[in-house]
Every structure is written in structure tokens, then in C-alpha cells.
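Why this split exists: single-chain examples teach little about how molecules sit against one another. For that reason, every record in the complexes split bundles all components of an assembly together and asks for one structure covering all of them. Below is a record exactly as it appears in the raw files.
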Amino acid sequence: MNETLITAQTANAARSNEVVLHIDNLSKHYGKRLAVNSLSLDVHRGDIFGFLGPNGAGKTTTIRMALGLIAPSEGKVEILGQDVATQRARILPRVGALIETPALYLYMSGRDNLRAIGATLGGVSNARMDEVLGLVGLLKRQKDRVRTYSLGMKQRLGVAIALLQNPDLLILDEPANGLDPAGIVEMRDLMHRLAQEGKTVFISSHQLSEVQQICTRVAIINFGKLVTESTVEALTEGKREYAVKVERAQEALRLVKAQTWGCDAYLEADGTLITRAPDDRGRNLNLFLMQAGFVADSIGQATQDLEQVFLKLTDNVQGDVA
Ligand SMILES: Nc1ncnc2c1ncn2[C@@H]1O[C@H](COP(=O)(O)OP(=O)(O)OP(=O)(O)O)[C@@H](O)[C@H]1O
Ligand SMILES: [Mg+2]
């Protein structure tokens, strides 16, 4: 068993049994178009759950159904064990959500935005406002008008609003959308802080490398259907393949492919040879190559990044077909 597997299993073992968001056989038709197709997912307490899929895959539609903003055609969503369709008013105070860009009062300060929105929720204490402003890193700019905020700061204020009532579940639809690299880093830091707070977060995103760094689990959907659901570690583990940097890589590839253990070998775009090893042991691969006259510059376990997995699983097809 390799290290990645152990990590994935440890992450699984530490996972709480409590299901916070239960999506059960959910479908949504828009006319003839099936935007979400028999989708089932469980998000457990403490998960930082990445919800991935190409444009038009059905992420926002799923999130709108999860929040009771639109009705499913079939299936149901339960939050904290209660049916969203019938118990929406009771559940919503326990859920914080940010769908696309937040609706903010631009002429008011960040803090006054929190106060105004807090008032519509039945009032919110100064201490709680301090807390969420601290969490999203806006304490210093809280008195400035939101008009003067960067896009990233506005998004973070949106997350602060979602956090106001200290929700059990935070649902964020593309929170890093449109942010520049600095804004993305800020959002990533914020997600890490939320994870440390023990929050349960369901986050849809196109930023695959971000998801890889932030999330404990991911689901990938395409054409409204679940393609896979797993830990990030399990999805990106190398399936016992090795990455070999070697001169005359084409020749080495031909030789390796002629072996039973190496028949699936291939070269990556940068010329790295990816192959299994004899008896799945890296040292045997090293020896084999040496004996054949290939001295490797490096041999390491191959890992795939989430983007490669994503493109493979969704076959690089866009879901946005008529
Ligand atoms: N109100 C609507 N009426 C008709 N079709 C809709 C409506 N909303 C979404 N769709 C369609 O449903 C499908 C899923 O859309 P959705 O917005 O859920 O995708 P998404 O995964 O959030 O995409 P993106 O990554 O672009 O945000 C698409 O084909 C879209 O055109
Ligand atoms: Mg969307």
C-alpha cells in the first residue's frame, strides 16, 4: 500500500458520520433538456466538498435545488435530515450560501452591509460581525465603502454574509470566479480557515488546482450526471505508475511497451515516460532500464493532477449542448 492510499483512507476514517447535505436521486428538466440527471450525493459534517463539472454540467441548478430556490423535477434534497422542499424556512437559517456574485450595497461600508443584512435576519451582534470580518480578512477595511473594494474583497464580504448566522453548512457557487491570482489566493486562505473552524463547505468551482488544494472530497458531474465521487487523494493517486525522466525517451517507451507490465506506458507532452514497473517496484524498473542502457535522470511515483483526471473523466466534452 502506498502513502497516498493511506492518506486517503485516513481522511475517510476521520470523516464524520453525520450527513449534512443529502442529495437523493435529484433531476431537473428544463423543457426537454435534462439539466440534472438522477444525482445522488452525501456531504458529511466537516467535508470541504468540491463540486466540479464543465460549463452547463448542472452545478448551479443543483445548488439552486439544494437551497429550495427552484423545485426539482424528481428526487429530493435533505439538509440536516430535513426535506428542503417542505422545511425550507426552518433549514435556511442553518445554511449560508453565496451564488455567483453577492448582492451588496455599494454605497455602504462592509460592516454596514453586514449590519443591514443581519437586521433582515433578526439582528446580529457586534461580536459576531467582528468575528466574520476577521475570518474573511476584512477587519481593516470594514469601514470603507464597498464601492472601493476589489472583486476579491466583495466576494469575501459575500462569504462573511453567508457566515453571519454561524451556519452548519456553507454552499458556495464559484466563489473564486473572476478573481485574479491574488484574489484566488485570498479565497484559498479563507477556505483553509473555514476548514480549520470545522465548517462543512460545499463549493462548486472551475479552479481545479484550487479544489485540489482546498477540498477533502470531490464530485465530478457532466451532463447533469455524477461521473465520480471520491477523496481528492484517491482521484489523483498514480495508479501504481512511475514517471521517468530519461534521454531517448521514445526508444525507452518502445522497449517498455514490449514488456507485459509496461504495455500501457506512454509519454507525456514534456517527454516524461509514464509506466508501470516490474512487480510494481520502482527499483525493478530502474534496474530494467539500466540493464537496457537507459540511465534515468529521475524516477518517481506518478500522480495525476485533478485537471488531468477531470478532463479524462469528462472526456473534455462541454455539457452545453442544445
Ligand atoms: N432557467 C433555465 N432555463 C432553461 N435552461 C436552463 C436554465 N438554467 C440552466 N439551464 C440549463 O441547464 C444546464 C445546466 O446549467 P447550470 O447553470 O446548472 O450549469 P453549471 O454547471 O452551473 O454551469 P457553469 O459552470 O457555466 O456555471 C445548461 O444546459 C443550462 O443551459
Ligand atoms: Mg454555474
